[in-house]
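User: My advisor, Dr. K., asked me to get a structural model of this assembly before our group meeting. I'm new to this, so sorry if the format is off. These are the inputs:
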Amino acid sequence: MNAFFNGEIFKDSLWLLVKTLPTVFEVLILGLVCAWAWGLVLSLVRLSRFRVLRFLAAAYIDFFRGLPLLLLFIFVYYGLATAGLRLPPLASGVLGLALCYGAYAAEIFRAGIQAIHKGQMEAARSLGMTQGQAMRYVILPQALKLVVPPLTNELIAMVKDTSLMSVIAFPELLFRAKEKMGVVANATPLTVAALLYLVFTIPLIRVAAQMEVKRRKKKKKGGAGPPDGLTPEAEMELLSADIAGQLPKGGEMH
Amino acid sequence: MIELVAVHKSFGHLEVLKGIDLRVAHKEVVVVIGPSGSGKSTMLRCINGLEPIQKGKVIIEGEDLHGPHTDPNKIRQRIGMVFQSFNLFPHKDALHNVMMAPLKVQKKPKEEVEEIARDLLAKVGLADKMEAFPDELSGGQQQRVAIARALAMKPDMMLFDEVTSALDPELVAEVLGVMQDLARSGMTMVVVTHEMGFAREVGSRLIFMDGGVVVEEGDPREMIVNPKEPRTQKFLSMVL
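Assistant: The format is fine. Below is the predicted structure of the whole assembly, which you can bring to the meeting.
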């Protein structure tokens, strides 16, 4: 027991790890903003009417969904450095997150946009709106509401995946905890890191679950019919994008 | 004025419109009837370019909708359309459903648009429902908001695509009433419907479509009682 939970070391590590939180938030928030903005752009390109662009976006999404995030971090930080492009750990972290999570977010946004009944686009166009205006004022406001639950799941995964940045010397929780563990020859710092992750992930997990319950209830009582609701296909699509979002992107740590 | 010249439209290998010619004059109320799958809704959607066509011409007020220098968005601003499934914007209340297009497309000032919207909603009998969201309204109310929304762009003509088909029977009259008022005010209208009563009372011309062609057209009061084509006779005997 003392090996994992030593009172003295616990206090020490807690202070040390709490001090790293601002850095973790920094990379997380920058990564999240970049990933989601990039994902939204990708999804719109993926749905555009230009075949070549559509293909490129789809290829990008498949490519980055198929790569372990850990490899991506190592490539961006060490790989690019061998070619003379030396990115600081923070920039590498943000870039890695944006490249990878952007691909997942793109799929979620696409499912959200496609879940909006096509009558909405037609009504907007029949009023003289351009494709872009219809997207901006009619489709996206509705789609963005739909993707909040799956994006919350993405956020949970992202919080956990910041730990992968320990391999690129980014001073986040796991990196500092491992360092400390080496010094004190005791696993308590890891316990503290675990607790700190949970402090952030468990509320998010509860929020996501709550939204799911609410959505089901609304669906049951609503039954307002198809016009503005989701078609069953669209709902499945959104769900599968959501499930994909809950899988770890990084693969195993070695 | 609306003019369709030999319009052909296919979905893949399925030819839905096989050469439609149609002229709708100012202030005319053309009622289109026909069995499902006859192409009447598709024809309506071709008029404002919601469906691309393979052959033929669609001319709105002298302007070729598919012409190289035509901006279809500009033309659509002059053609209001109302759908069977209402298609109100669920994230906006009734007032803002009506205000959106004049505000964002015509870029009119907000005060002016709000006044237009309030007027229109009052006119369709929804003065007390301005702040209601679509899911708080009955089908008939939603459809009246949809009509007001289309009118807010001050269109020269209106297209109605089976606008009462999704309504409970007791709600049909309130929507037809609004349409009747609109016709009386001199609006040019093309109305795809199964409401023969509306065709008889409001229509200035009746068109019967079947199998992607116009089979017969004429004065509604006369044609309903005395159809000439066997296909028209058969259809009318089933719906009347």
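One thing worth pointing out at the meeting: Residues 29 and 189 of chain B are 5 Å apart (CA to CA).

User: Perfect, thanks a lot.
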